[in-house]
Amino acid sequence: MANEPCRIGRRPFIIGSLIGIASLGMKGGVSSVFAAVPSTADELKQYQPVFFTAEEWQFMLAACDRLIPSDREGPGALDTHVPVFIDKQMLTPYGKGEDWYMEGPFDSHASLLFGYQMPFPLQVLYRKGISLTNQYSRIKYNQNFCDLPARMKDAVLTDLQKNVADFSQFGEADLNAGYFFTRLLENTKEGYLADPQYGGNKNMAAWKMINFPGARASFPQWIKIHNVKYPLGPVSLSGEQA
Amino acid sequence: MKKINDAVDVIIVGLGWAGSIMGIELAQAGLKVRALERGEDRLNSDYAYPKPADELAFTKRHKIMQSPHDAAFTIRHNASETALPMRELGAFRLGDGVGGAGLHWTGMITRPTPVDLKMKTYADEHFKRGELDEELRIADFPVSWEEIEPHMDFFDKVCGSSGETGNLRGVIQQGGDPFEGARSNPFPNKPLEDSLNATLFRQATQEMGLHPYSMPSAAVSVPYTNPYGQQIAPCNYCGFCQFYSCLNYSKASPQTAILDRLKQFNNFDYKTRANVIRVEKHADGKTATGVTYIDENGDEVFQPASIVILSTFGLNNVRLLLNSSIGKPYNPITEEGVIGRNYTHQYGGGFTLFFDNLEFNPFATAGPTGTVISDYGTGNVETAQLGFIGGAKIYSSQPTGTPMAAAIKKGAPSWGSGWKKALKESYGHSMGVKLEGSNMATRGNYLDLDPVYKDRFGMPLLRVTYDYVQNDLRMLQYMKEKMEAITKHLNPTQYSHNILKMDSHFASSPNYVNTHNAGGAIMGDNPRTSALNRYLQSWDVHNLFVMGANAFPQNFYANPSAMVAGLAYWSAKAIREQYLKNPGPLVQA
Questions:
Q1: Above 0.90 for ipTM, yes or no?
Q2: Which end of chain A is more exposed for a tag (fewer CB within 10 A), N or C?
Q3: Could you name the domain of life of the organism this protein comes from (chain B) (predicted)?
Q4: DSSP letters of chain A?
């Protein structure tokens, strides 16, 4: 069971394709070009994770899909390649804990008022968190997280968030479920809203949805124009427009 | 074996605002000056457009901040707890590298008031014995408004401050802050433009009979040349200011306002990645011989100097004093000792107002845009009957408009479709009504060396013992009522707030509070209760001067930079005009 690849539902694929068309339309392209451009979903399928194992990657795809689903409101975490963002973050100094103070002694059970107090970097936190969530999922629903139907995935995520899932029953002394969820959710939102150079926010779709102009960074006229919706789409740090 | 550098007249430790000011003032006097900076060099060319327009790098990954890996702090609420390290940046974020906090600051250049400088005198005049909490340790600054104002005035010229003058040489001016201390000159430049939230706040508070004025800004509103001949371009409201280096050469920084000029002096140089671990003393303990640092190769180097200036961030100054055994460490039980006492932080918080039908375009902004009222500042309202001393400015600004920082409607789910819908509805449709509140020093909030945790050079970390002050929490409850009244007057679709409650405790992480730490090596008239005299000269080691907010006996309701810089100019003047002629204590104890 654990090694079986999970299936991601069809819905995100379709929406991803539609976004591909929409962005082409904006640039004045016609539908005949459509076949030449891979959808964001196809690109995500082709992505080879640099940090996560195949099983972990399936978890990440499934979890991000539930945290920011694709729906009529706008693109989801998979359309915008949030799992790619998190995978790439794992090999940065942040993911490796190189910017943090990581000398002991550690008190993993300290009050949350003191922030992060665990004896491992983010990489290890994810590795443990994914494995423990799958264990929890197997005990509760007899399946790995990624194989569960959406409703049950949401139930597991809620159990993590509320710290109902007890990781200590699996012998984990330092990491609690609520903290793993907090970090997973924070990184997911970062991937959704950061500049596309980091792997997420594919096609700046999240910025377009909320009307954030990205790295335009010059508004000497617009500071004086009040209560009028800003008309231009976003640009990225690399100069890409959407 | 320890390396030894050539001797210099003045060694400056830390090249932020205070270090740059001391550097140029003492280099102009003809002294051979060298600065040592722990972090990287940071040149303007490294921050050209579009590099700073990156929320992940600067706000979330703290690209120009001191990483806890390099220097963490340990935190506890009281002396009976075990302190824990702030392992990733949380409640406060210190600058790192050349420019220090002056590179990432928001650029609000608010001054303290004459009352803030003489708080003990004010307390004695306005409160009966026993009316204030016994734990408070309020003290006067040992300088008068008249002494320090000309130096803050000069710093305003260096930055090209943009604002509305409220009190010009004692005459109240229309449109400015009527509660401010008398200015010797008007602001060099006109205020920044109001964003929509600032306009709404201005209008509402005016209708309520309050006194709104434009946030004093160190991002210049018009093209400007400062007294050092540095040309500064007008702000283009790029939206990346607080925690970012300015991509437009507009927000004053040590780089743009001072360093480009200072680097032209042949008698000034600086070394980066030079991590000072100790001030060295003569055998008699009365003078410093120089400093020891670890260079970029990990070698220990002794830098001889006739005058030592500590101008690292205030907290790091205190740590250096403690690690150098200069001055007696404070003991909170006996209240003896001077290094570490009167540590204070500052209060923030506010209301978030959501307007479904207004477009705020939050990305079109500068860090210091906004409108403010000082009507509830210390001394501007009688608080003896309310059980607290202190006050707050209340303001609406739009410090950054980036999406990860966006407020989300009250009651919205934190994830899933509901979160996304709320993000869409919230982003660009909210404004803040915020406060910046004073923080009184107490007997029990203090700094010392951590007995357990050390840095990568084996030096003990600084331990912060701090919790919220009851006096101040009462102040916040009062401000909450006032802010709620303004909020209701503005009539939003819905609103939420995050004002601390009476039973709240300090959280060192993960949430950011602010970086306005103060105290720990305070200035005063008495060497038994202060570390520094009125010229920021160490009482114990006369050729050691310590610049920074560590000198504040308590924290006021303004941003610290104007006062930190004013004190640096004041101290530099004393060194130039008095100390060089006759080295020794400038004040007889």
A1: yes
A2: N
A3: Bacteria
A4: -TTSPPPPPSHHHHHHHHHHHHHHHHTT--GGGGGGSPPHHHHHHH---SSS-HHHHHHHHHHHHHHS--BTTB--TTTTTHHHHHHHHTTSHHHHTTTS---S---TTS-TTB----SS-HHHHHHHHHHHHHHHHHHHHSS-GGGS-HHHHHHHHHHHHTT-S-GGGGT-SS--HHHHHHHHHHHHHHHHHS-GGGS-SGGGHHHHHHT--BT----TTGGG--S-------B-TT--B-
